[in-house]
């Protein structure tokens, strides 16, 4: 009878969990769910940030390419300007020599 009594008490104890333990487990589960939600939010924010970073890098690469093209155009323009100056100097020299020749022939 004693064994039956102890066995019944043990069965009752197992059937009726400690309310403090139940609250603690529920609180831990709620905290775990909140952490899972937060982790999902952080992962989403990270994905968005990585997409923005990729776009920014692409824009930087495009801007760099445009800058290089503008630099090449500027160098070509400077070279053309130098050639124009030389041509103008030669033309002035020809005019000067021609004027001197004409004046000396008079």
Automatic annotation (TrEMBL):
Extent of Polar residues compositional bias: 97-106
Top-level taxon: Eukaryota
Region: Disordered, residue numbers: 76-106
Compositionally biased tracts (Basic and acidic residues): 82-95
Protein name: Uncharacterized protein
Species of provenance: Neobodo designis
